[in-house]
Amino acid sequence: MKKKKIVTLVAIALSAIVIWAYNEYKPLPVVYCTSTYPDYSVKELAIESENIVYGKVVSIAPTQMHEVRVSTTLDPTKVEDVLYYPVTPVTISIKDSIKGDELSKIIYFEESGVTDTYIQKAQGYQMSQGMEVVLFLNEEGYGWGSQSVYPVIDDQVVLQDKAINEIPSNKINSISADVIEEKYSISSSYEAENVSTTSLDEFLKLVNSYIN
Predict the structure, then answer these.
(1) What confidence category does residue 65 fall into, taking pLDDT thresholds of 50, 70 and 90?
(2) Which helix (H) or strand (E) holds 141?
(3) Which of the four pLDDT bands, split at 50, 70 and 90, describes residue 75?
């Protein structure tokens, strides 16, 4: 009887440990950023941006909660509530300051991160260590969602749909989305099998034509 009681207590203890471990380490649900922005062309992005940079991701800091003051009434001038959403500070080592101050590094705030209750993925292309990228940024280090992020792989810029219409068709190439993820470790929320690219020189020539 005593042995049976001990076995029962051990079983209860093990069950408690399993439940604790599950609650402690269970996978968090994954969601994608749902922020909405005006739908900009490359030209409009170039004009609106305070800084346009080409650089490389050198570090990714822990998630922060960004505060946004909003109106809960029909009057947008009456701001009386606060919302929070996760952002991840990404340090970019600058290879070329295309627009704005000449900087060696810049902090880009990606709308993504890990919270206590969920993981938020960025829309479009997710930043990763060592990734090269062209970014269109406002004065606070934020972009206009996924349309502000142009990954660069082997001197080829991965194009957003809007940019395709602004570049001569004979300057556009195609690459498998699987290759971008598997070879270059760049993940995205896009579902297309193939994506369009153009040379970095061609893309920067386009951007410079809008700001000079």
Answers:
(1) confident
(2) none
(3) low
Of the candidates 93, 84, 83, 92, the residue with the CA atom closest to the CA atom of residue 64? 84
Query: C-alpha angle 117/119/120, rounded to 5°?
Result: 125
Residue carrying structure tokens 């061609």: 202
Q: How confident is the model at residue 187 (pLDDT cuts 50, 70, 90)?
A: confident
Contacts of 110 (CB under 8 A, 6+ apart): 87, 88, 89, 90, 122, 126, 127
Percentage helix, strand, coil, to 5, in the chain?
Answer: 30, 35, 35
Q: How far apart are CA 56 and CA 152, in angstroms?
A: 9
C-beta separation of 45 from 136 below 8 A: yes
Q: What pLDDT score was predicted for residue 161?
A: 87
Q: Is the CB of residue 61 less than 8 Å from the CB of residue 147?
A: no
Rounded alpha-carbon distances, angstroms, from residue 124 to 32, 98, 194, 208: 9, 22, 14, 24
DSSP 68-85: EEE-SSS-TT---EEEEE
Q: Whose CA is closest to 157, among 184, 138, 139?
A: 184
Q: Determine the pLDDT at residue 68.
A: 67
- Among 52-56, 61-65, 111-115, the range with the most confident prediction by mean pLDDT is 52-56
Look up the pTM and report it: 0.79
What DSSP element (H or E) covers 182? helix 177-184
